[in-house]
Amino acid sequence: MPTASTRVPQQERSRATQARLLEATVECLVEHGWSGTTTTVVAARAGVSRGAQLHHYPTKAALVTAAVTHLTERRAVELRTEAAALPAGPRRLDRVVDLLAAAFTGPLFVAALELWVAARTDAELRDALVPLEARVGREMHRLTVELLGVDERRPGVREAVQATLDLLRGLGVANLLSDDSARRAALLHTWKRQLAALLTPDAGPPTPGSARPH
Amino acid sequence: MPTASTRVPQQERSRATQARLLEATVECLVEHGWSGTTTTVVAARAGVSRGAQLHHYPTKAALVTAAVTHLTERRAVELRTEAAALPAGPRRLDRVVDLLAAAFTGPLFVAALELWVAARTDAELRDALVPLEARVGREMHRLTVELLGVDERRPGVREAVQATLDLLRGLGVANLLSDDSARRAALLHTWKRQLAALLTPDAGPPTPGSARPH
């Protein structure tokens, strides 16, 4: 039986190996796409033996699913840290939207989109991803509510947060092949004003009952 | 030299062959994805000889680009026809958004997304798609302005139309792996009210100058 002193370093080595494999997987997906990402290429890139790689992640589906889970969690921690450093005040919402927009145009979004699209026509990957997609969606929603510091029990807040995330997903796709940053910045400039109005208790969106006749 | 009477039927046959190839291409992309779509599979599905297929579309990039162009144009005609049948009045905007949402969750969107994602890591396809993406984006914007019957010279209208299309693109991606229609319907219900307010001259979005202090 290993002693406590040998067991801990081995666990640490395992975790470090796993982390290297998962980072290399996302890098591969970004550089080569789903079809260009093979477990062999990932192991080589991570500097991990094929045996160790198969020990931790026996299939490509297991590897890519673990990679997106791991990096989504890490990205959430980073977003919380970045948001904690933001000044309070009316400009905070703008900065939070900018942080989220950066996440939806960054490498993790690109890697996830490669998987989402591939999973459409790959039954094994699809089975692995559908529960993950639901979980990531819920966590992203909760994170956004937290970063914006809003109360979801208020009418309209949940819908405004959802629309923001769906809009950002659309903007992420629009940025895939060409630099869409100028158009995105202008569009988000307007969206931030709308979102502020939707999230402010005394300046909510117009409802059918309150709309002026026209 | 062919006479006028033989030339016309041959042109018609060519057009029919092309149309069959382009429909089969989109069907293949939807069913098998980018990597499962080969020119051989498309020719077989269309019932067109390999020679005829190569004559019309010598490369896979040429075939898929032509397919998305052709079907986007056809879809635009269909959307105009469907929109022309809509009753005037306050519910028209809701129905136009529903038509657009159906387009962004339909087979053509799925096929286009396969290409957009594949083009990220395929230089030949990327070169072919970047100009097409810009053109499709502009035409979709113009079509939406036309279907909504709004005047883009009014402040805020252009941004509201853009946000609607980016939101719908995001909703299209959210629908890739699982049926997102219930969540989408609820979200669009709210969005339609916001969009109506943004597009109505006397009930525009709040601007920084008009926002109440808080």
Brief rundown of the structure:
Two copies of one chain form a homodimer. Chain A is built from nine helices and no strands.
Describe the protein in words:
Two copies of one chain form a homodimer. Chain A is mainly α. Chain A has a domain at 60-203. Chain A is built from nine helices and no strands. The first copy, chain A, has helices spanning 4-36, 39-46, 50-56, 60-84, 92-103, 107-120, 123-148, 157-174, 181-199. In chain A, helix 1 crosses helix 4 and helix 4 (60-84) packs parallel to helix 7. The longest helix of chain A is centred in the N-terminal third of the chain and has 33 residues, at 4-36. The first copy, chain A, starts with a helix and ends in a 15-residue tail after the last helix. At the A-B interface, helix 1, helix 6, helix 7, helix 8 and helix 9 of A face helix 1, helix 6, helix 7, helix 8 and helix 9 of B. Chains A, B: It comes from Micromonospora chersina. Chains A, B: Keywords: DNA-binding. Chains A, B: Residues 15-75 form the HTH tetR-type domain. Chains A, B: Residues 38-57 bind DNA. Chains A, B: GO terms for molecular function: DNA-binding transcription factor activity; transcription cis-regulatory region binding.
